[in-house]
Amino acid sequence: MDDDRFRLLVQGVLDYAIFMLDPQGRISSWNAGAERIKGYRADEIIGQHFSVFYPAEDVAAGKPAKELEVAAAEGRLEDEGWRIREDGTRFWANVVITALYDDRGELKGFGKVTRDVSDRRAAEVALRESEERFRLLVQSVVDYAIFVLDPQGRISSWNAGAERIKGYRVEEIIGQHFSVFYPAEDVAAGKPAWELEVAAAEGRLEDEGWRVRKDGTRFWANVVITALLDDRGRLQGFGKVTRDMTERRNAEQALRDRGRLVGHLVEAQEVERRRIAWDVHDESIQSMVAVGMRLQLLASRLPEPAAAAVGGLDESVQAAIARLRGLVSRLRPPELDHHGLVEAISAYVEEVAGRWELAHSVRDELTDEPSPEAATTAYRICQEALSNVHKHARATRIDVTLSTVDNGTRLRIADDGIGAAAGEAGSGHFGLVEMHERAEAAHGWLSVTSTPGQGTTVECWLPKLPDVTGLEP
Ligand SMILES: Nc1ncnc2c1ncn2[C@@H]1O[C@H](COP(=O)(O)OP(=O)(O)OP(=O)(O)O)[C@@H](O)[C@H]1O
Ligand SMILES: [Mg+2]
Are 38 and 91 in contact (CB under 8 A)? Predict the structure, then answer.
């Protein structure tokens, strides 16, 4: 390419300011990009010293002259910094100054290429600011201890949450090995090092366990360790987020204890009811039956009106026996022991719905007989639900459905009554609470849905093989 064409090319370039300086730094050529970026026309600027492009503070510090010196000595200089346009506004410039020597090695001047990189710088500044904001966020989080470890496990950053949860101040802890947070037995077992190894190998490790505060007290922690890798996949350290789960753990423990207690109570209640049912059946009813037989015998031998009076006594005894049998079957329905859940519930629904003049149905969709515990629970829930229908619903019919769902037993009791207003149950009402607790003690669930004017449906599900821990002594 000949010199003229090359000159034309340089002249026409718009994205770069390309111009020449004489050995003293005065401008001797100017292209279209220089005019666009800096605002001066060629006839305005040629012959001026290039320090007009520098901010006053740089000129005062002698920066333009120094840059030429370095470029002359080393052949080339690159710089980034603020430059000034003709109208006084600033832009962020990338500048390359190249020393130009002739064949004899004499300095003839400098070539200068300047780019306006304000956009790139703005993006970098925005990124830095967003990183800074993120750092501030992490710093000020108090619910989580968030900190960074170097690849060897020494602590290199610390946030407010870490100080709150672990008790160490930044200046006390930076540089220490993170194994100070572990109980002595874990350290002896090599757990801290092992956790870093796993995190490094798999990228991430989650753990729950005891950790130690500065004052020596323990807390139950949820810990996530994340390996921090650079662009090339080399390990730079670890991020560690720790939560204090002590309260949650205590609450869960309390809930478990309570569940176990309810389980015991439910179980004890069943045992007691069964015992009473047997006692009443074997002793009270048997002796009353014997009394009845003697009364009948006596009546057959007595003249009237004594015979009629004794016969009347016998009727009272028979009625009492019938009531006691009802009590026994409510305490411990014999069908549950001998015929299974559907029979027991059918007999019960038949009896009470008949007495309360309710239309009724019991649908059996069971494909699997529930365990004895689940059957008892279902029966008790059914009893309470029906007594609620009687007491509150003003219903005309009830429909009970038993089905096998999800490897468990589902019981649904629907009435067509007035429905329960939400939040109506308050203190002094234990039926719904007891139903829920029974279902939960059996590791199932119970829900009550109610539409005012259309009725109430109680639905529960009891798993087939309940985890019996709740019922263990
Ligand atoms: N089938 C239903 N139809 C309409 N309202 C109902 C029905 N079941 C329950 N309720 C309402 O929900 C309330 C709470 O029922 P729950 O069984 O807990 O208590 P209770 O029956 O009032 O008293 P308890 O069962 O302790 O003797 C009832 O007072 C009633 O207002
Ligand atoms: Mg009730």
Answer: no
Residue-range domain boundaries for the chain: 3-117, 141-244, 251-332, 335-473
The CATH class given to the 141-244 domain equals alpha beta
Q: Detail the DSSP E strand segments found in 131-261.
A: 145-149, 204-212, 218-229, 235-244
Q: Is 327 helix (H, G, I), strand (E, B) or coil?
A: helix
In contact, 446 and 411? CB cutoff 8 Å: no
Q: Would you state the CATH architecture of domain 3-117?
A: 2-Layer Sandwich (3.30)
Q: Which atom of ligand 1 is the closest one to the Cα of 391?
A: 21
317 lines ligand 1 (CB under 6 A): no
User: pLDDT, tens digit, for every residue of 96-106?
Assistant: 999 999 999 89
What are the pLDDT digits (tens) for 344-401? 999 899 989 988 999 999 999 999 889 888 999 999 999 999 999 999 999 999 999 9
* The two three-digit tokens of residue 402, written as one number: 């038993």
CA dihedral 342, 344, 349, 351 (to 10 degrees): 150
Q: Which fold has domain 335-473?
A: Heat Shock Protein 90 (3.30.565)
Residue 391 CB–ligand 1 contact under 6 Å: yes
* Residue 308 CB coordination number (10 Å): 12
Ligand nearest to the CA of 433: 1
Quick one: angle between helices 306-331 and 286-301, nearest 10?
160
415 lines ligand 1 (CB under 6 A): yes
Contact between 459 and 449 (Cβ < 8 Å)? yes
Answer whether 3-117 and 335-473 agree in fold.
Answer: no
The answer to whether the beta carbons of residues 14 and 33 sit under 8 Å apart is: yes
455 C-beta closer than 6 A to ligand 1: no
Count of CA atoms in the C-beta half-sphere (13 A) of 337: 11
Burial label, 24 (beta-carbon count in 10 A; 0-12, 13-18, 19+): exposed
